[in-house]
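Protocol step 4 of 6: structure prediction from sequence.
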Amino acid sequence: MKPRLLEINPVLPSQDVMHSVAFYVERLGFTLRGTDSNTDPRYAVIARDGVEIHLQWHDPAEWSAVERPMLRFVVDAVDALYEEYAGAGVFHDRTALRETAWGTREFAFYDPYMNGLTFYADR
């Protein structure tokens, strides 16, 4: 049997893991699955539906060298999710729901530590 890739669980950098957890839980509808510490977590796992994201602390003094990824989430109702997040105060001034030349309908914004989040559906 040929091995199959089953899922991907990205690790996003954060200067304050609990601040990131609060953003994803309170504004984006994720749930907290666990942390490495109850008092000063340096690592946390959050999830929504079939998506799991790991959040990892990085020293603010070394922040300029930390790469920030851009994640692309496939969603089944991109317009409804856009409306949900529009009321959560997470968009930046250029966030818009748009049709792309590559055949998707999508919108994007950043989390508190400039990790890019794009949500899309094929047209």
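Step 5 (inspection) to follow. The chain has one domain: 11-60+67-122.
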